Amino acid sequence: MADERIVRAVKEIIQKEFLDLNDIPYELANTIANIYYKSLVYATDKSINPMSKHLPYNKNGWSVVDCMTQSLYDIEVVQRELEFVPVLIKELREQKQRNHQFEYKMAVLMALDTLKYNIF
Description:
The chain has helices spanning about 5-20, 25-45, 65-95, 100-115. It is mainly alpha-helical and about 120 residues long. The chain has one domain (about 5-115). The longest helix has about 35 residues, at about 65-95.
């Protein structure tokens, strides 16, 4: 279940950074909101250890170092996503303003592939 404090904080961040995301397709806007939510969960909930989601793999031969490495990678991915999103939003809005519909649609699809489906 979503933490309402974090949901409110995400709304405030999005409003401050982008005013809103109403001009972005819903699926991408939701994915962006989820990125901000995930980053705030990592940053604010001290009971969450990002490594804990990888510990079950330890049974499959992962060492604790492997789990820690994967956890650091996960945190780095969130950081890179947070750096990428403002650039993406700016570019999408410019494409839309120039009426470059094909480029806009392709950028949305590529962003979803990358941010939501982890296809690189």
